[in-house]
Amino acid sequence: MLPSPGFPGSRNEARRDHHPNWFDASYISWLSYDALNIELPDGYLYVLPIINWGKYREEGGRLLMPVSVRMNHAVADGYLIANVFRLLEKEMADFVRRE
Description:
- With about 100 residues, the protein is an alpha+beta fold.
- The protein has helices at about 15, 80-99; strands spanning about 25-30, 50-55, 55-60, 60-65, 65-70.
- The chain is built from two helices and five strands, in the order αβββββα.
- The radius of gyration is 16 Å and the shape is globular.
């Protein structure tokens, strides 16, 4: 098995060193979901955040967009992740108000 991105000896190690805010992100444009679980082999060793978001949908007169974060608890706790979601909500609300 290849080393995980960002670990010593991996081909992404040097690139990550130049980007302190490195993280994995993906957009599932065709799918709106209620829950998403990402299982990684030896996932407890993978400490970079993984952020996924899906297709937005209208529900009850509101636009909803699924967002999930996979984070190793060794690097962040629920309080920090909640702050990320609060910031995301604020930025989205500001964006909608500008239109």
